[in-house]
Specification:
- By secondary structure, this protein is of the alpha/beta class.
- The chain has two domains: about 70 residues, Ribosomal Protein L25, Chain P, CATH 2.40.240.20; about 170 residues, SPOUT methyltransferase, trefoil knot domain (Alpha/beta knot, 3-Layer(aba) Sandwich), CATH 3.40.1280.10.
- About 35% of the residues lie in helices and about 25% in strands.
- The protein has seven helices and twelve strands.
- Strands 6, 7, 8, 9, 10, 11 and 12 form a seven-stranded parallel sheet that branches.
- It is elongated, with a radius of gyration of 20 Å.
- The model has no long low-confidence stretch (mean pLDDT about 95).
């Protein structure tokens, strides 16, 4: 069943109204008709099972048949602090991270980041595009929320923000990758308390500087190993998010 999103202000006692680009998508792309059923999300974790009752020029009205908490969300919130990669890798990272259940994505400027976002207007355009990619991925994967893509921040500010969360994890190629070390890493990402916030730090191309890892550990982060192979920045986060989602289902 197709998923769409609307603001809570558009949700009434018996009907929900959809405005904006989704109206054209429903009418002219999907060519849906009155009587067809769709899922409408309030972007905060509640899904509404609805039936289209009116297809207007600028709005679609759907009758509420039932509602419930989205079953597509993890029982906790994963915040991905992603070292800013080159070219369009960030777009793919956002898309896949959203599919894998991430709650929020924050681009981070680390010492080995090559890309510079010095132009505020350029950064704003990129952030808007990244947010649109997040929304598209959320629709495709049936998410109950649209994960936010935050503004790019410094590594120091990222650590400060993450320090307020219950768990802070930083995969590091020099972490213990022995059988016992891998068991400890798996234990760290298993049985995460429901309702908690988890920070995951992923380095850019070239990884983190040793001094950054030391600073992160000093702020409460726990280094873990993802195995004996060196993973690319666009692979490491996806691998860890997959494991987190799988072992905590």
């Amino acid at each position: 069943m197709y998923h769409f999103y609307t603001d809570k202000a558009n949700i009434g006692d018996k009907t929900i109204t959809i405005f904006g680009d989704d109206v054209n998508h429903i009418k002219n792309v999907l060519r849906m008709k009155e009587g067809e059923e769709i899922i409408i999300c309030d972007s905060e974790g509640t899904d509404y099972h609805t039936k289209i009752v009116s297809l207007g020029r600028d709005e679609v009205i759907a009758e509420i048949l039932g509602s419930g908490i989205s079953e597509a969300e993890l029982p906790f919130r994963v915040h991905l602090f992603q070292g800013l990669p080159k070219k369009d890798k960030m777009e793919m990272i956002i898309q896949k991270a959203v599919e894998l259940g991430v709650y929020e994505i924050i681009p981070v400027m680390t010492k080995r980041v090559i890309v510079k976002l010095d132009d505020k207007a350029k950064e704003q355009r990129k952030t808007e595009r990244w947010q649109a990619i997040s929304e598209s991925a959320a629709k495709q994967s049936g998410r109950g929320i649209i994960p936010k893509v935050g503004s790019c921040m410094s590594f120091k500010d990222a650590l400060k923000l993450a320090s307020e969360m219950e768990n802070v994890i930083i995969p590091y190629e020099n972490a213990d990758s022995s059988r016992e070390g891998m068991k400890l890493s798996l234990d760290k990402v298993s049985n995460i308390p429901a309702g908690s916030d988890v920070a995951v730090f992923i380095g850019p191309e070239g990884g983190f500087e040793p001094s950054e890892v030391e600073e992160a550990i000093g702020s409460g982060a726990v280094p873990i190993s993802l195995g004996k192979r060196i993973l690319r920045t666009e692979t490491a986060g996806m691998m860890l998010l997959s494991v987190i989602g799988f072992v905590n289902m």
